[in-house]
Amino acid sequence: xxxEVKTSPNEAVKxxxxxxxxxxxxxxxxxxxxxxxxxxxVAQSPIVFKMxxxxxxxDVFNDMAxxxxxxxxxxxxxxxxxDYLVGGSVVKPFEVMDATSKGVIDAGHQVAVYWYxxxxxxxxxxxxxxxxxxxxxxxxxxxxxxxVFYDELVKKLGLxxxxxxxxxxxxxxxxxxxxxLTSAADMKGFKYRTVGxxxxxxxELGMRVTQLPGGEIVPAMERGVIDAFEFNNPxxxxxxxxxxxxxxxxxxxxxxxxxxxxxxxxxxxxxxxxNDLKAILKYxxxxxxxxxxxTAMDLYSNDLITLKEKHKVNVIRTPQEIFDAQIKxxxxxxxxxxxxxxxxxxxxxxxxxWAERVGYYHFFNNADYKAAYEHLFGKLGF
Length: 382
Prior knowledge:
By secondary structure, the chain is an alpha/beta fold. Helix content is 47%, strand content 16%. Helix 5 links the parallel strand 8 and strand 9. The chain starts with a strand and ends in a 5-residue tail after the last helix.
């Protein structure tokens, strides 16, 4: 009996079963002893996937992508190999989805909000309206309910991809400002960088929003294209030099409070894989989630201290008034999007009902970690 390993949609390589292989090896060994010819083992070439990230060369998100790639490559044991390329190697960061769908690259590592221009529903799989759940709880929604909607969305849009999600991201800071904000009114008129539905939210609050990939933020700030910006976390921000163009780092916001990575594969190439390699790609994302989060907790906390102590950054908590204004703006924006798009309304309703149930459990059950922290280390000062 022989098994097939597909290396492309139209090609299959025959592999002998283990029993037939062992039998053949015994005969071959006997023949080698008689004739004096050495045995030669010919290894099958691995299936190679070229994956590109959406991240600048220095970004910690490349490190996190490699954590995924390394786990997949180790589990695949030479039968499948992912080669990882940093953002811009083949296509621009915001072009990763289209390039993967068309087969220009085989796979991508990004966030869904980078292609929300195709459908604002995409932000519900990356960083949509706040619901009362955090990123880990919203990622659980994707695993339990949301994947069906995601698959429906990419099919509606004609995207030839399969997607998995990993790494529940901590709340993203409001961002970097030359002058700190003291009220929601201060936000009006600011030229600000963000992406996805967060752009719609900040426009609702009176900001003038420009959507840029991470590698273009600091040059835009230097040229005056933007006055303020957010990207994601202290490590990414430190590495691309945010501290060189602004000194006020405002922590906490509702604009992107529950995001995660989207790991995508060209569906034609993915479907050609045997089931065990498909499983490695899928469950490798779950393994990377744990590794990525551990990396984040270690680096983000250290780099926030570095920004504050070495680079003299003014690290401050976003005023409560801004949080209040954001959540009211989300109400307005979400209602408008639901009225405009029945599919958005359907996905949001699923997410909202999930949050109502999960949040009820969470808030009734969760310990007061802030009180414990302050008991051990003193008042936080906000």
